[in-house]
Amino acid sequence: xxxxxxxxxxxxxxxxxxxxxxxxxxxxxxxxxxxxxxxxxxxxxxxxxxxxxxxxxxxxxxxxxxxxxxxxxxxxxxxxxxxxxxxxxxxxxxxxxxxxxxxxxxxxxxxxxxxxxxxxxxxxxxxxxxxxxxxxxxxxxxxxxxxxxxxxxxxxxxxxxxxxxxxxxxxxxxxxxxxxxxxxxxxxxxxxxxxxxxxxxxxxxxxxxxxxxxxxxxxxxxxxxxxxxxxxxxxxxxxxxxxxxxxxxxxxxxxxxxxxxxxxxxxxxxxxxxxxxxxxxxxxxxxxxxxxxxxxxxxxxxxxxxxxxxxxxxxxxxxxxxxxxxxxxxxxxxxxxxxxxxxxxxxxxxxxxxxxxxxxxxxxxxxxxxxxxxxxxxxxxxxxxxxxxxxxxxxxxxxxxxxxxxxxxxxxxxxxxxxxxxxxxxxxxxxxxxxxxxxxxxxxxxxxxxxxxxxxxxxxxxxxxxxxxxxxxxxxxxxxxxxxxxxxxxxxxxxxxxxxxxxxxxxxxx
Length: 510
Ligand code: FAD
Ligand code: SF4
Description:
Largest sheet: 5 strands, parallel
Helix content: 40-55%
Strand order of the largest sheet: 4-2-1-5-6
Number of strands: 11
Bound molecules: flavin-adenine dinucleotide, iron/sulfur cluster
């Protein structure tokens, strides 16, 4: 029976059981398509990253002796549409069975499910064999519960997979070393050089240019620097264990003007295209730590593993639990426009300028820049979540909707009314000042609220709390902030609100 198997751009898992044996009757298909380059405006590095990884995977499959059809973006036959390409190959190759792996993105899942319902040939769907959890596991996990806390989920996963567990109890005596993960970077702990891969991309750049694909951001040196396949990802992971793990937890939330990556792993692109699995990462990190425990504290290891088996799996579960309605939630009824400087980095606010320019230059910003700088500013200025989603989905090389959406709309923008975060992640300038060195080089004064050179985050913060009283003042975790707000003199609050209104109405002035 002639079978066509589809491999999506984020399903580049060379360890998948599909590839264990060769079968002359099976053809694998991989497509570069305008359907994917154009559904949102992507960062240039994101598109070249995906296309290089897909081309590399196709070559690997062919070297392994499998039949592969690969459509380049400018291939004459390419319809630029997923199911039309599949239909074309079914006809051309007289296929009688279609097989695919479960897409992680709702949009693609719908497209393929409809196709399979309509097609006359037999079809079968497989697991991607990547995650620890199944797509719908969270439905059962949170059944009948009002709150969907990540921490509860994380503990269950740790126990189920016996990760950092001794006799049913957490190794090191605590489930969570979050409190040790909140240091400002102490410049004495030297950051090793960034490990860059020089994946050549000139031909892809030419192709995108020729096909007029609209992109954002920049690319330097005509190469893509993040790992694109399993061997590069394993190399990156080894580098992380040897040089970065030692301080990962310590400086997880730190920010610095000169350091775009600090001790972060830069593994998200490779993970999200499934070049490497979360299990590979957890096992390697644990093995390394068991051998070198004398100089790596458990807080670094737990802090890292929590991101992989906690946050990442939880976000995916929440996405599938809450879609499709999740994409339209706007609990706080925010409707302002995203300022132009998000696309240029051109602002006098140093923290925003650095976070946005890092994003434009590298297709990357680390978690705290995404959450407490760009996300914080967007929430305080009450930007419409659709616009924020489009920005986050476009700008990061690791942005795929299943992980971007719950992080942005949920964790960062509180647009789900608290399903993911128990309170909005908002702060005045003092948090940003506490965690990094941006404020010392800024045009604004982080200590001031309403003067001409006052840090905009300060007035925006109190204005936000005041504007959103009806939605937030009963939130238990916001009680202290509302009691401070309630003690503020009305004339002081009035001045703050005038200042905040000016920032919101004229964002590009600041
Ligand atoms: P490290 O700091 O080294 O962390 C290791 C790994 O943990 C990451 O590679 C990632 O796979 C995982 N991880 C850490 N935090 C999270 C999280 N909150 N959710 C899911 N996985 C996590 N991550 C994406 O992969 N794609 C996105 O589109 C994305 N959008 C985000 C949007 C916002 C507003 C926020 C606040 C966070 C977002 N994140 C996203 C999570 C996180 O910022 C990135 O995973 C991380 O910065 C990637 O860099 P790294 O590989 O160096 O991560
Ligand atoms: Fe950002 Fe305010 Fe600090 Fe400037 S002073 S870097 S705007 S937090």
